[in-house]
Design brief:
Elements (H helix, E strand, L loop, with lengths): L1 E10 L2 E11 L4 E6 L5 H8 L6 E6 L2 E2 L4 H6 L2 E4 L11 H8 L6 H14 L1 H5 L10 H13 L5 E5 L7 H16 L3 E5 L3 H7 L2 E6 L2 E7 H5 L2 H7 L8
Parallel strand pairs: 3-8, 3-9, 6-7, 7-8
Antiparallel strand pairs: 1-2, 1-4, 4-5, 9-10
Helix pairs in contact: 3-6, 6-7
Bound molecules: adenosine-5'-triphosphate.
């Protein structure tokens, strides 16, 4: 579905992503794992058209446009970390903003009902200003807003940042749920253990390069990955 070939991102003299090639098959969850500054968010932002890059990105066999609004129009939607919602709009207004590319009110209402079913707390809080939501609720709103555009694929950036372990598990569980409803996911999360547990396949990034890749379960059981990214804990899937 998504194929990235030798993508590089540079910010002036700093090269954040170096000739990275990854693939995300339709229907899967693929995780990017790596330390702070490894280039994970830059890779997502490049695919989404938010930062310039060199290399090629193909989506459903066609070159992916490099402008963010054109990328969204292809059904590929970036879910920014939850602090980047519209704080001075209500939950409902934020969700409607996610459907800005569409005009069909009947289907928009159906999608709203679907988002409220997945995240009942958003329905309870629909008239509340988004800026007053808790961290977990904001993440749910960021994902819900992206779902309002009927995406084929979500690029999810740090959904569990700043959340308690319990909420982090809950949010990542909801991402799995979104995936089972047919949405392909490329996921970056600082919680490597949980993201590998919900992913099908993963890539390990180090200083802008892919240094390892494989079945998510196989990487969870890899002693070098456990040592570097899972706090030395043995985890099985
Ligand atoms: P984290 O998990 O800490 O968010 P990351 O793996 O997502 O890290 P990036 O945020 O992509 O990594 O950053 C990769 C490198 O690029 C870092 O060295 C960072 O300082 C640098 N960088 C990121 N954004 C910019 C920018 N706008 N201008 C200059 N350098 C940047």
């Amino acid at each position: 579905m998504l194929k990235v070939d030798r993508l590089s991102v540079a910010y002036g003299a700093v090269t954040a992503v170096r000739e990275v090639s990854i693939e995300v098959p339709a229907g899967s969850i693929v995780a990017l794992v790596g330390a702070n500054g490894a280039g994970k968010s830059s890779l997502l932002s490049a695919i989404s058209g938010l930062v310039p890059y060199t290399g090629t990105v193909t989506y459903n066999g066609q070159p992916l446009p490099k402008q963010s609004h054109q990328v969204v129009a292809k059904g590929l939607v970036h879910v920014p970390e939850g602090r980047r919602i519209f704080s001075n709009l209500t939950v409902y207004e934020n969700l409607l903003a996610g459907a800005y590319t569409r005009w069909d009110m009947t289907r928009i209402k159906q999608d709203l009902a679907r988002v409220y079913k997945l995240f009942p707390v958003l329905e309870q809080r629909r008239s509340q200003y988004a800026g007053t939501l808790s961290g977990g609720e904001r993440q749910m709103l960021a994902i819900g807003r992206a779902l309002m555009s009927r995406p084929q694929m979500l690029l999810v950036d740090e959904p569990s940042l700043g959340l308690s372990p319990l909420l982090a598990s809950q949010v990542l569980g909801l991402i799995r749920e979104v995936n089972t409803q047919g949405v392909t996911i490329l996921l970056v999360d600082q919680n490597a253990r949980k993201s590998l547990q919900i992913a099908d396949y993963a890539y390990v990034l180090q200083q802008g390069r892919i240094v390892k890749e494989g079945d998510a379960c196989q990487l969870l059981n890899d002693p070098a990955v456990q040592e570097a990214y899972l706090g030395g804990h043995k985890v099985s899937c």
